[in-house]
Specification:
mainly alpha
Length: 317
């Protein structure tokens, strides 16, 4: 198969989401007693094996929009199609909807203003924009590498895409750091996933350190400034919660401590709590690094609407 980096990343997101969905909201103790070892179905939403949640739905809605270029209104329109018309779903039903996403998409539907719809409170820093940002990161990294946009323009567009639902600077930075990792994986020629994570994060922090608007928020991501040390933290110090900082930390930690897609995803899902989103966020990076063939074949084949998802990934830059 021709190396399609977008397919690698997006399928990584969807498979990770589907792996974690059946055990979403499980505690660490419950996961330790009954760990996930393979893809299953049902769980809190009683969905069949291979079903995926809002994480993948909004990722795919973003991806479908990008086929027409980067346009915030078009992307937000797709979010409305998902929430109110059940498009971009595995089974014609929108479910597992976060409060911030519900509020922001409903606001956009009513007011049609992409610059005011996102939630921006201190307690609105869930992972609902990070979980769907991979296609925008991939697109902007390619656009910047091609000289079509500057780095500032690329990062600002990442921020604007986050702000469709999550407009607090902390959430924007989480998406921005993810972008720098994606950018490094695509064009930095790292020799290992550890090097890709370290260089991507280093470049991301260097970028934000020079922006006064980010100063107060960077402290929340301080544990990621030294990935070599961070990777040695014990599992007890890593959370799988729905907080954007925890999700990015958990994703990086699992990738630093494993050597393939399967082991990384099982480690992340078995952290408990917001298991589908941990799976989606780390799955995107793991898929991008290890490739489509690095995702277990039986997991890929179980994905509902897989052929349609793969068809969306035929995007040329």
């Amino acid at each position: 198969m021709k190396n399609n980096t977008l397919l690698n990343a997006v399928m990584g997101v969807v498979v990770g989401d589907a792996l974690g969905l059946p055990v979403q909201f499980s505690t660490r103790e419950e996961m330790d007693d009954n760990p996930v070892t393979d893809m299953t179905g049902h769980g809190v939403f009683d969905m069949p094996k291979g079903a995926w949640s809002d994480d993948s739905s909004l990722t795919l809605a973003s991806l479908e929009s990008i086929h027409r270029g980067f346009n915030l209104e078009d992307m937000a329109d797709n979010f409305v199609k998902w929430l109110f018309h059940n498009e971009f779903t595995p089974n014609c039903t929108a479910y597992d909807i976060g409060n911030s996403c519900m509020e922001a998409i409903s606001d956009y539907r009513m007011n049609h203003d992409v610059y005011s719809c996102g939630t921006d409170g201190e307690y609105d820093n869930g992972n609902g924009s990070l979980m769907r940002i991979m296609p925008v990161c991939w697109y902007m990294a390619n656009m910047e590498n091609s000289g079509i946009v500057t780095l500032d323009e690329a990062v600002n567009n990442i921020h604007d895409a986050s702000a469709l639902t999550h407009s607090h600077m902390r959430s924007k930075i989480g998406c921005g750091l993810y972008f720098f990792i994606v950018r490094e994986m695509l064009f930095g020629n790292p020799e290992s996933i550890g090097e890709a994570l370290a260089k991507g994060l280093s470049e991301g922090f260097a970028y934000y350190d020079s922006r006064a608007c980010a100063t107060d928020e960077l402290v929340h991501y301080s544990r990621l400034r030294n990935p070599d040390e961070f990777g040695f933290l014990p599992r007890e110090e890593i959370r799988g919660s729905g907080y954007v900082v925890h999700t990015l930390e958990a994703s990086v930690w699992c990738l630093l401590n494993t050597e393939n897609y399967k082991d990384a995803l099982l480690m992340g899902v078995n952290l408990g709590e917001d298991t589908d989103t941990t799976g989606a966020v780390e799955g995107g990076l793991a898929g991008l690094w290890y490739g489509y063939e690095g995702i277990p074949e039986d997991w890929r084949n179980a994905i509902i609407r897989r052929e349609w998802i793969e068809s969306l990934c035929g995007l040329d830059i």
